[in-house]
UniProtKB/TrEMBL annotation:
<dbReference type="InterPro" id="IPR036621">
    <property type="entry name" value="Anticodon-bd_dom_sf"/>
</dbReference>
<dbReference type="InterPro" id="IPR045864">
    <property type="entry name" value="aa-tRNA-synth_II/BPL/LPL"/>
</dbReference>
<feature type="domain" description="Aminoacyl-transfer RNA synthetases class-II family profile">
    <location>
        <begin position="57"/>
        <end position="297"/>
    </location>
</feature>
<dbReference type="InterPro" id="IPR006195">
    <property type="entry name" value="aa-tRNA-synth_II"/>
</dbReference>
<protein>
    <recommendedName>
        <fullName>Aminoacyl-transfer RNA synthetases class-II family profile domain-containing protein</fullName>
    </recommendedName>
</protein>
<dbReference type="InterPro" id="IPR050062">
    <property type="entry name" value="Pro-tRNA_synthetase"/>
</dbReference>
């Protein structure tokens, strides 16, 4: 792996943004995200690295549980939806696209297509499938930035278990795995049970910026956490408080329709962009972003002052060879500007090559600074290992 150079990167940070609140605000002002239209976003190079790391994290979760990845198309034939029990339910949230070859729908969810594909190939018992793709939702009012945008990326798991017992077991396995993946990113999760659909559980994450996309009830007596919003607990009769958060993932059992009618299966989805936004927002410390190692754009950011060029190149080669992703700020800019941009990049380890020859290592995970006069590469490796 070669170190990346800031001079080649497109990373437009904005120093004027002092009122950062939501994750989307943080990502826009820190040079990760760009707004293409209302509710439509694009990822800039640094943001795309975070997306890539999130993709990897969801794929790893799928592999560990024995799910194989498949690629499903953005276009779905309208007839597949007309045959579905959810056609009426989703209504105008479906994005219909008239094309020369016929009527299509832009992917809003893949269950209908997965069922069609499996039915056409016969033997699917026991199949565990994973897919990761962009979705389109025909919202009139996109809101909360990446949390409710018109296009978004979803990681999805489908398990065609052979018995009700196996389905119940898989629901718990997926729920636990997705919640623990979110917890590893530093997010606190809550399971929310849906009373109208007992086989549906949402994994909610609190928003520090108070993004209220998903409302639910918590019983002050027995702590039962559920939807819909009720004042009285249906389990113990206690008083409930209604709270709001963001639904980062959901896990459900579904009765198939069409050719697979009669079969039930387990599905789960995790919002990739939404999760990145929640991490940016919840882990930011007021003045800077703080990425966890699992999805940081770079492990190490090197800020080089006058006279530090030779040593920084040596340290960069050493760390790259050890498998760490490194970026070197080689731009001919003032030191202050580089330090500001370092806050936006938010690497877990920052190495500052000072003009007096000393090297400062900032461990951003443990919020600890060390200054060394030699052996910077070895000191950096030790810090990265401890993170
Ligand atoms: Zn209760």
């Amino acid at each position: 792996m070669q170190p990346t150079r800031w001079s080649t990167l497109f990373f437009p940070t904005s120093s004027g943004a002092t009122h950062k609140k939501t994750g989307t605000d943080w990502l826009l002002s820190s040079g990760y995200l760009t707004r293409v239209d209302r509710g439509v976003y694009g990822w800039l190079p640094l943001g795309q690295r975070v997306v890539g790391a999130m993709d990897h994290l969801t794929r790893t979760t799928a592999e560990r549980l024995g799910y194989s990845e498949m690629g499903l198309p953005l276009l779905q034939p309208l007839v597949v939806w007309e045959a579905s029990d959810r056609y009426e339910q989703l209504g105008d949230l479906l994005t219909r696209v008239p094309m020369k070859a016929g009527e299509y729908v832009l992917n809003s969810t893949q269950e209908e297509v997965v069922e069609m594909v499996l039915a056409s190939h016969g033997n699917f018992a026991g199949a565990r499938l994973f897919q990761l793709s962009d979705r389109v939702r025909n919202e009139l009012r996109p809101a909360h930035g990446l949390t409710r945008s018109l296009t978004f990326k979803l990681a999805e798991w489908y398990c065609f278990a052979e018995s009700n017992e196996a389905i119940r077991k898989e629901l718990v396995v997926l729920r636990t795995e997705l919640a623990s993946a979110l917890e590893r990113l530093g997010l606190a999760t809550t399971y929310v049970q849906h009373r109208e659909r007992l086989d549906l559980t949402s994994v909610a994450v609190t928003s520090t910026a108070d993004v209220r996309q998903f409302r639910y009830s918590i019983c002050t007596g027995c702590t039962y956490t559920f939807r819909p919003e009720l004042e009285v607990c249906p389990q113990c009769g206690g008083r409930c408080e209604v709270t709001a958060a963001v639904e980062a993932a959901d896990v459900f059992a579904r009765a198939a329709v069409g050719a697979l009618r009669g079969h039930r299966y387990v599905g789960a989805g995790l919002g990739v962009y939404r999760t990145i936004s929640l991490v940016a927002e919840n882990l930011a410390n007021g003045i800077r972003l703080c990425w966890p190692r699992a999805i940081c754009p770079f492990d190490v950011n090197m800020i080089v002052g006058d006279n530090g060029a030779v040593e920084s190149e040596q340290v960069a080669r050493h760390l790259s060879a050890a498998g760490h992703s490194v970026i070197i700020d080689d731009r001919p800019l003032r030191f202050g500007r580089k330090l500001f941009d370092a806050k936006c990049l938010a690497a877990p380890l920052e190495i500052i090559f000072k003009p007096d020859g000393r090297v400062e290592l900032n461990d951003r995970v443990h919020d600890k600074a060390t200054v060394v006069a030699g052996g910077a590469a070895e000191a950096a490796v030790r810090i990265l290992e401890e993170q």
